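Note to self: keep these together.
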Amino acid sequence: MATPHSTDSDAGEPSGSVFSGDRIVTVFLRHDVVKLDDGSFIQCMKQSQLRHALHSLKKGSLSVRAYVDKIKGLCTLLAASGSSILEAERSAILLSDISSEFDAVVSFASLFSTPLLFQWLVDALLECEAHQLRSVQKALVVANFVEGSSTQEAARSSRGGRSFARG
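Structure:
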């Protein structure tokens, strides 16, 4: 069992979380000295490890869906261990390591004075990713068409076909 002993003011709740560039800063108005029994210590360590994993999660080459699933999975584990993640914190984590190809979504989200809903950001990022994939696929089709046209022309000229130029 945990026994807190206040060493500062009476307000022990966090006064707020602020997204600052690549990290979330939580401000506490007081500090508690806590004595933990073995079970509480293990639970506290597990929560600490899960929070660290959540905050150090990198999108890298993952799809948006896979990245979001990892965030949701870690948030579910934290909630099951008794430590929930606020919506604003989840949104900040989602946007903290997103690549520059999603700058439009990040810029749009930064225009609001209040954090946007996590699911809204997920939907916007998924739509942006789908648009990018469609653009790449269209570019590949055009490239194959141009390559195919020049290959056919080269094949005709190598078989001794007539030239279009008269001379």
